[in-house]
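Long-time lurker, first post. I've been practising inverse folding by hand and with some scripts of my own, and I keep getting stuck on stretches where the structure tokens seem ambiguous. Below is the full token string for one chain I'm working on. Before anyone asks, I'm not after the true native sequence, just a reasonable design that respects the backbone. If someone could post their per-position residues I'd love to compare against what I wrote down in my notebook.
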């Protein structure tokens, strides 16, 4: 039963709908544009802001974990490029 509850919290929103992907919000859209334009500093800033929004306000645990993973990847890439 615990596994079933974890899966429900992972992929369902508060209304019981399965949510895995969504249309990007403004910060997510800007991040995608900056990545395509190869403007890495702006992509990192908007990507971290998108990650924060997902961690703080994500509709389910999957979205929150996704935000955390992206934030970790961005921060590690920034440190790698500085060092």
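-- Answer (accepted) --
I ran through it position by position. Result:
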């Amino acid at each position: 039963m615990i596994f079933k509850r974890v899966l429900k919290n992972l992929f369902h929103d508060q209304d019981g709908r399965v949510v895995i992907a969504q249309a990007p919000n403004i910060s997510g859209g800007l991040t995608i544009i900056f990545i395509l334009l190869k403007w890495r500093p702006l992509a990192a800033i908007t990507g971290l802001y998108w990650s924060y929004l997902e961690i703080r306000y994500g509709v389910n645990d999957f979205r929150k974990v996704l935000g955390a993973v992206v934030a970790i990847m961005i921060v590690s890439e920034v440190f790698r490029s500085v060092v």
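A couple of notes from the structure itself: The chain is about 75% helix and 0% strand. The CA atoms of residues 6 and 61 lie 9 Å apart. Happy to go over any region you disagree with.
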